[in-house]
Amino acid sequence: MTDTDTNTALEASRCLEYGDDCAGDVEFHSVGASLKAWPRCEFHAEQRWERYENSIERYADSSVAPSWFDPGDAGESWDDD
Q: What H or E segment, with its residue span, contains residue 9?
């Protein structure tokens, strides 16, 4: 086993959101089109997926900026069309 294999095994052995509510096997999970994956138990992976879907439903492909968006913060606009 190489150092990389050992590090990967250690990283995957603990849920990123580790706590008393962890449930299920810890595996690497990614969200959306991201190429990054993080170790989460089944319970926290499902919660993360639900948060992702909620944000897509609320903000993606919307020409209306959410109430918290301030173009002055970074000089950006919500809708570049």
A: helix 3-12
**Confidence (pTM):** 0.60
- Give dist(CA 11, CA 81) in Å, integer: 42
Asked if the model's pLDDT at residue 3 lies above 90, the reply is no
Quote the domain boundaries for residue 18: 3-53
**Residue 47 resides in a domain:** yes
Q: What's the pLDDT at 58?
A: 77
Please give the tally of structural domains in the chain: 1
* Secondary structure class of 29 (helix, strand, coil): strand
In a domain, 67, yes or no: no
